[in-house]
Amino acid sequence: MSMQRMACVAFTLLGVTVLDGAAFAGDRDGVSEELEGIAATWPDALFSIDVHGTDDGNAALNQRLEIVYEAASPGYLAYLRVSSHGDVTLYRDLAKAGRTSGTQPYLIKPPLGSEQLIVLFANKPWDALFAKGATTRELGGERTDAATLVKQLAQLHDSDLLFAARRYQLQIAASPGGTEYTTRAIVRRVKEGGGGSGTRIPSRIQFEFNSDQLTPQGKLDLDTFGEALITDLRNSGVALEGHTDAIGADDYNMDLSERRAAAAKQYLIDSFGIAASRLSTVGMGKDNPIASNGDEAGRSKNRRVDFIFSAAH
Questions:
Q1: Which among 109, 139, 267, 280 could bridge 88 via Cys, Cβ 3.0 to 4.6 Å?
Q2: Hey, which residues does 42 pair with through a beta bridge?
Q3: pLDDT at residue number 301
Q4: What angle do CA 233, 227, 85 make, to 5 degrees?
Q5: What domains are defined for the chain?
Q6: pLDDT class for 300, splitting at 50, 70, 90?
Q7: What are the tens digits of pLDDT across the range 205-214?
């Protein structure tokens, strides 16, 4: 690769990142705002990145990618992964000597949505930011966590560590058939329904048996709705209707449907920072089935959360 092309790619290429399903969700907007404060101290470094395996900035869960880099001067690679939920993890290549080129394997993992990758390339090892011998550092997902890292990076200049920085974005989706709806399908359906005015989308959000605890698949399906609500449908409100099948007492089913709708609402608030005022919930129990309760196939369709989108406000 020529130095001219390297310089061009370094400033224009879009890339990829994901975070393994974290046990916490962060302040997505606050973290992003703080990380904008990362100021490269080696801005003239001829350093380029390419991400092999993406499709025009899109990637799917469990897809294996390669981060390929090349530089004019030897250096040391590190990168930040910022999930769609705002959780941040710092990684480094524990090379003993600086390199002018290399490849990092990259496996796409949950959560779904828009991810950010910030690649850092330094003239010295990144030892000051990691425990001895460690290659990973969980930073948390709060604004203060991101601000602390930005300050630490600025202080590295005092130890003569200089770094270049490159930022990339990728939209993470489920593999085909991995979720009931894609974010794009949700947005298209709402807009075709009049921009959100009363558009109803039934969704079989999965919960643990006889519980309001979301399954991993249930969280993935909610991710597709959450991403829509913070992008194209950011001005829409949503009513979440919980529904059950016809097995069990009426009072119990009503309570369970209410708790499941509330759990879906709380996940969207915690994971995407959606204002609670945009989300309302109601339990419908076993009323309003959309399929027969006479067999398991029909009952599984009736165990659902309906999303009713309101007009933009």
A1: 139
A2: none
A3: 87
A4: 135
A5: 3-173 (2.60.40.1930), 183-309 (3.30.1330.60)
A6: confident
A7: 998 888 899 9
